[in-house]
């Protein structure tokens, strides 16, 4: 009996699970009852993978509400395959409570599920149970001829000719996996090995200091950060929030009635970044009334026209003005329809003038100024992006007071439906992202801006940050943070443009961010082998893939017939492997296209006799 065609999926987290779900959804149409072996490679449990593994601290939350998380397609997703509906996280929890679903979860997580409401921010270990259930459901939906084989190990390399079998070398295994096709869904990359981080680590080794490079916070060696000692933290996003929680509540401290009660085991966190402020809080209210029609200015036609141009794209020149106009359209549509008392023109008149004006033009700014009298009601993306630009304080203490006031104002606004234009901008960001993923590598600024504005921490986390600041456990450093090394004193020294002349010295430095999704300095042997084997890598280090189906491109621009890649390390990076229901889910579209291309290739290969090499 001849062996079945085979595909290796490297990465068993949400993206790999999504690919298997799409294979199950499309197999009936494209593959029939032909046999197929799927080999899933990941050292962590399938479904959640490394980032969403079940053995995490219950203190670590998702930064999305339960009602805003789904692993399933709906009619808003543009895909060639069938929509297969499934529950969002909050609906799944209700199914568990009603006994319709029995998840693979320990008693503590089951208790969390039974208490979960739609507006709650679940723990990551609860999300792991949802992802595991999604994975098991996908396996159950596969036709009888398709079998999944799990390999709890790490893939080290992919080799093989374009026209023949591929070989995946596994850690701890003598013989490689042989496959007709390989799909890489490895998610976030391992810690970087780029020169600046190597230099800082070498400095730490010379002087017996602590340097924690970019990494998933739950995997960092936080025990090396000693109680009471100052720690310079570079990065003010979600990785910082995790760090803050694990080094405070995780060490026995407690929050009570807005006050932090320390355990005495906490270090003192001196935090700064380029912006100098935390990500904006998650919006704390739901949508009511008319939604802005999206996309309006930044839709498929515009994207197609941009892709048809010759020559490289310049994001700031070619893309950003239209993104800004699209976000403005969402903002002002909501302002005029929900808060007309704050406008000075009829909505129809404004909308016609706004649509006709060129993106980024003085004319457009003049139309907005005429129609929206209060500058506070206008969308100022530059001010949102750099709130401390040009701001300075005479002392570190003055900065502490000012930044606490800034965070308090942000929390108030993001929980006030009288500012529901902010939620409209959030929807505009999701719509824009769905189009911009088609453009390939547009640089890292857009992704950072999107996360800063649309993917910030839950409001309760920023309340905790305020309490920690008042308790002196967290100290703000400001914007434009630089970190230098002092060989003579054997210390790290941080300075900020926000408090000129001030500096902070410490024997510990933490890079509070995930590693950049770059193949140039990745510690992943798998992706280094792919790069060294001829895969195309952009100037910013992303793996080049065909935007149509995720096939890996070589340096001549040719799609590899047997290698696919999906995820944040590719030029088709999207905002997440799971998404908010009814928002189009670009990752779902990508998963579907890759699964259909893979099934078609494997079916045709079986029909004509499999090639061997």
TrEMBL record:
<dbReference type="InterPro" id="IPR038732">
    <property type="entry name" value="HpyO/CreE_NAD-binding"/>
</dbReference>
<dbReference type="InterPro" id="IPR036188">
    <property type="entry name" value="FAD/NAD-bd_sf"/>
</dbReference>
<dbReference type="InterPro" id="IPR052189">
    <property type="entry name" value="L-asp_N-monooxygenase_NS-form"/>
</dbReference>
<protein>
    <submittedName>
        <fullName>FAD/NAD(P)-binding protein</fullName>
    </submittedName>
</protein>
<feature type="domain" description="FAD-dependent urate hydroxylase HpyO/Asp monooxygenase CreE-like FAD/NAD(P)-binding">
    <location>
        <begin position="8"/>
        <end position="188"/>
    </location>
</feature>
<dbReference type="Pfam" id="PF13454">
    <property type="entry name" value="NAD_binding_9"/>
</dbReference>
């Amino acid at each position: 009996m001849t062996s079945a065609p085979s595909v290796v999926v490297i990465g068993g987290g949400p993206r790999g699970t999504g690919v298997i779900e799409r294979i199950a959804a499309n197999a009936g149409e494209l593959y029939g009852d032909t046999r197929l072996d799927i080999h899933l490679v990941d050292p962590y449990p399938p479904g959640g993978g490394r980032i969403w593994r079940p053995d995490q601290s219950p203190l670590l939350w998702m930064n999305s509400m339960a009602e805003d998380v789904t692993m399933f397609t709906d009619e808003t997703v543009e895909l060639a395959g069938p929509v297969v509906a499934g529950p969002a996280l909050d609906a799944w929890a209700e199914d568990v409570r009603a006994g319709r679903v029995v998840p693979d979860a320990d008693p503590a997580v089951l208790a969390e599920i039974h208490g979960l409401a739609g507006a709650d921010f679940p723990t990551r270990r609860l999300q792991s149970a949802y992802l595991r259930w999604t994975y098991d459901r996908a396996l159950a939906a596969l036709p009888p001829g398709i079998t999944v084989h799990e390999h709890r190990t790490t893939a080290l390399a992919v080799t093989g000719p374009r026209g023949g079998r591929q070989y995946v070398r596994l850690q701890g295994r003598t013989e490689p996996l042989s496959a007709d096709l390989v799909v890489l869904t490895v998610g976030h990359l391992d810690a970087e090995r780029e020169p600046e981080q190597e230099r800082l680590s070498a400095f730490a080794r010379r002087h017996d200091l602590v340097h924690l490079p970019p990494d998933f916070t739950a995997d960092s060696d936080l025990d090396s950060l000693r109680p009471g000692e100052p720690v310079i933290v570079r990065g003010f996003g979600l990785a910082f929030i995790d760090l803050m929680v694990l080094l405070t509540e995780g060490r026995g401290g407690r929050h009570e009635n807005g006050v932090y009660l320390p355990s005495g085991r906490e270090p003192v966190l001196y935090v700064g970044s380029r912006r100098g402020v935390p990500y904006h809080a998650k919006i704390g209210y739901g949508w009511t009334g008319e939604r802005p029609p999206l996309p309006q200015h930044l839709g498929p036609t515009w994207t197609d026209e941009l892709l048809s141009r010759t020559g490289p794209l310049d994001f700031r020149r070619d893309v950003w003005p239209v993104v800004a106009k699209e976000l403005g359209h969402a903002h002002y549509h909501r302002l005029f329809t929900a808060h007309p008392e704050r406008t000075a023109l009829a909505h129809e008149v404004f909308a016609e003038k706004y649509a006709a004006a060129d993106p980024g033009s003085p004319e457009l700014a003049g139309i907005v100024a005429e129609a929206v009298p209060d500058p506070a009601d206008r969308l100022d993306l530059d001010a949102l992006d750099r709130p401390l630009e040009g701001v300075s304080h005479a002392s570190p203490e003055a900065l502490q007071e000012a930044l606490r006031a800034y965070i308090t104002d942000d929390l108030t606004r993001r929980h006030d439906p009288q500012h529901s234009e902010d939620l409209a901008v959030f929807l505009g960001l999701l719509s824009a992202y769905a189009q911009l993923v088609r453009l390939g590598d547009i640089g890292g600024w857009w992704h950072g801006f999107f996360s800063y504005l649309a993917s910030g921490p839950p409001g309760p986390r920023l309340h905790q940050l305020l309490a920690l600041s008042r308790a002196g456990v967290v100290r703000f450093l400001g914007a434009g943070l630089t970190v230098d090394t002092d060989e003579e004193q054997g210390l790290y020294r941080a300075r900020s443009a926000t408090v000129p002349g001030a500096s902070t010295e410490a024997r510990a430095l933490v890079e509070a961010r995930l590693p950049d999704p770059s193949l140039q300095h990745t510690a992943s042997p798998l992706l280094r082998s792919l790069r060294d084997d001829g895969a195309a890598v952009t100037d910013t280090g992303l793996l080049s893939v065909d935007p149509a189906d995720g096939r890996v491109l070589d340096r001549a621009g040719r799609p590899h017939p047997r290698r696919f890649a999906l995820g944040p390390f590719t030029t088709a990076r999207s905002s997440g492997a799971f998404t908010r229901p009814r928002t189009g889910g670009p990752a779902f579209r990508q998963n579907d296209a890759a699964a259909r291309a893979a099934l078609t290739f494997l079916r045709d290969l079986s029909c004509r006799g499999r090639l061997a090499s």
